[in-house]
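User: quick one, sequence for these tokens?
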């Protein structure tokens, strides 16, 4: 996905614009009740593997029980965001 930012940059540059790219590291933690986390991960992984419906939910719940604390699951997310800005050249 990050490659899309640079494709846009190159296209804008080739068109005579003056693009600028800004990338930012992001991360956060979210504590969720067990049932909400199980539903999120079941929806997320549905269709991405050979398990479906109740079987997938059972496998996810089994794992989440090993990492849950006080009925909550902590979900950590890390990634990058990017933006491209540009000015149209004066003619």
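Assistant:
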């Amino acid at each position: 996905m990050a490659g899309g930012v640079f494709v846009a940059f190159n296209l804008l540059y080739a068109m005579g614009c003056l693009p600028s790219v800004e990338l930012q590291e992001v991360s956060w933690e979210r504590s969720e009740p067990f049932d909400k986390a199980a539903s999120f991960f079941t929806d997320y992984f549905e269709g991405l593997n050979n398990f479906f419906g109740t079987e997938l939910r059972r496998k996810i719940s089994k794992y989440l029980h090993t990492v849950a604390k006080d009925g909550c699951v902590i979900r950590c997310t890390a990634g990058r965001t990017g933006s491209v800005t540009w000015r149209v050249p004066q003619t």
